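Researcher: Excuse me, tokens okay?
***
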Amino acid sequence: MSRIFTLLLISSVFFFNIQTAGGQSVFKKGVRALAKGDYEQLEAVLQRAAKRHARHPLRFWLWARYRGIDSLPHHNYEEAHFLLDRAVQAWQEGSVREQSRWLKIARLASFDSLYRYRDYLDRRLLDQIKAGSDLQAVEHYLQEHAHSPYKVEAITWRDSLAFAQAQAADTYDAYEEFIARYPGAPQVEQARRRRDMLLFEEWTTEGKLQDYLDFLARFPDSYARDEAERRIFYLSTATFRPEDFLHFLENYPQSSMRRHALQLAACLAMFHDRWAPLAAYAHEPEVLYWKEYAPLRKQWLFPYFQDGWWGVAGPDGNILIPPHLERLWKEYGCAPITDDFIVVEDRHGRLGIYDRRGKKLFGALFEDLEWLGDGLAWVATAAGEGLVHVTGMWLIDAVYERLEPFVNHTFLARRGGVWGLLDVYGRVLLPFEYDKIELWREEALLVLHKAGSAELLPLQQLESLQQGEVYYPLAIFDEVAPLEAHHLKVRAGDAYGALDASLQVALDVTYKEVDLKKNTWIVHTGRGVCLLRMSGRPLVADTFHYARAGTHYIVARRDSLWHIYDYLGQALFRQPADTAYFLGSAVLVQAGKKTMLLLENRAWQDRSDYYDFQLLRTSHDAGRYFIQMRDRRDKIGVIDRYGQERLPFRYEAAYMLDNYLIKVHVKRRVGLVDTSGQVVLPIEYEGIGDLIEGTIPLMKRGRFGVFVPGQVLIEPQFEALLHPEGRYWRARLQGNWGLIDAEGKKLLPFRYERIEAVHDSLFLVKAGLQWQLVNPLSGQVFWEGSRVESFDCENSRLLLLYQGKQIRIWKDGAWMACAEDYVQPYCVQGKWVLRSEQATDAQETRWRIAWKDLDGQVFFETLMREEELFEWDCD
């Protein structure tokens, strides 16, 4: 028995050794084939080994190497990685001796070579996955290769890929899913920001102020908070009132727009001189800046010219803007500058803005500029018109063909030939699609004209548009016209109707024509003309062919039957007649040879013996009038609106000069009577002119006189007579001028070429080349010279009187200090300022330029060379 067991043991050992030796030779062939790149031989070895050595580590190793060759079309890094893991597992199950033999056959330096190849496969597999940008593949890689040395890189790639997919979808749910699945990704904060912005945009689609307020109330910690506060700022302060900026500061003290709001609030407080509301912010730098700037606004600044360059100096001589400017704004001339901010001009005529500290706010960008108040300035550039603010901000980009201030800090803008409406920050309130936009102030209404139609927008709705409400046209008509009592007549197609002041329908748009007079509707229907009360109910039951309303009565006609009603609907006349029409408040009715007048007091007068009825009234007061008519003798008389005779029937023509004087004609002569018929001037003049500035010119025998009602009568005796200057008249005889008083008495002889009043008792007169300043009452001559210059400043007059090289200054009846050389007066904020030029040496090579008041107090002075003075041509 023991012999049999021994033989079996020897046989099995022998067989195993033969099998092992055979396996090793196969794998050696495979290793050699792999080294030579003989992949067909390698594949044959693997097929052969699969039959006898299916679980051998060298088979797994060679197979892993074979599947990991990227030059082969059927390579598969995932499969190679799996086979390598099997090889490592089988390798580790062998003995030390076997592992050493396998390393030798595989030509590996150590067992670590297997791990290095696994790292290589991890790298290649990750690169392959990254090239495909497949998120599921990356997730699978991280799941199956949790211990890969490239795990961090894979996670980073996964996060980037997942975030890119969320960005591609760009939806709230996509970002929310990304944040939930990858909370540790570096893109999480960015995803939260975008997620919150998408939510913000969804909540505020309509852009209303209330939407932004609701969003912040619901999501106070949102990443979109800053953007919401920014938009709230622009909507809540679009009316540009100081209280709007303060309200924003109180509600959003941590907003990024805080400094912006404080800057504008403080600037407006300076312009309005209202600092009390900003007491809580008194120590803020923006408030301190504008508080310190406020006193500078009261100082006069002076143009400063040196070495061919312009600058600006303060009253104490300090140079605010050093001489480096090509020129100052041409509007300034050489007068002291009183603008709150200084406009400069370059050689090309472009304008820029500096503040009074010499800080440049805007470079020379503008072709034109106009101050609008509150620190706003309309500007024009080569690109278009826009709006800037003295805080240095562009509020409306200069891209519009026209930009015009409108109402409530809104601006009409034209682009592409059509008009729209912008707020002060340039946000579109009304789209660019209108031919014209009008403001009817009395009706508090905006009328928007477009392609033959008109849209109506109440003025009070404008503020809601400034706060983000969207404009939807609610009332669109083909034509709009104002009626009485703030009503509007509207037309749609061929039908007319009416709206009340709140744009509610007062009359349905179903009539052929509508009119409103003293709370009575006159409407044209298919059946005729109807009279309706304001409620729409009939005032009278009849329908007419014609109707017209006056101040006291309504005249209507049906066939040959004429009707007259008062505004209560009471019938005052209903008879056949030829015609009936209004004469002021009265109604004239003609029936055959009979003529009747219904007067304002409801009295009837028979005026059958008269014809040619007309109203007699002045052009400046339509409410005061009389009725003139002719009798059978063709003479004109006049009655008042109550039928009382004011002028008897004896005139050929009559014209009203004012409410109380009537010019009448008889036999080619003219006179004046008052409205009671009393003669004011007899009918003996050849001509009587219109009442002009309280005087009526008269002409008799080719000579002129004048009549001032109730005061002066100067009989016609002069060739010309000018309107009075003070108490005196300038008259001309034999081609020369003299001076007379209100009674026609001669004060100055008729020998002057020119006479000008400068004061109650002082006149400038010119005879030949000489001027004189004389008192016409005493005849005293105060000055005589060759030239006079006159200047006015509000209620003050100043004269420069030249006597050789000497200049004497006269102001409002008093003599000022004498000056030599050159003096130019300016009216600055109601005060006189003199700019003098005086040579400092006999050769006149240097000149002292000084600005001073009439008492000689110097505000600012500078020295100039003669050539600089000639170049300084600023007058």
The longest helix spans residues 2-36.
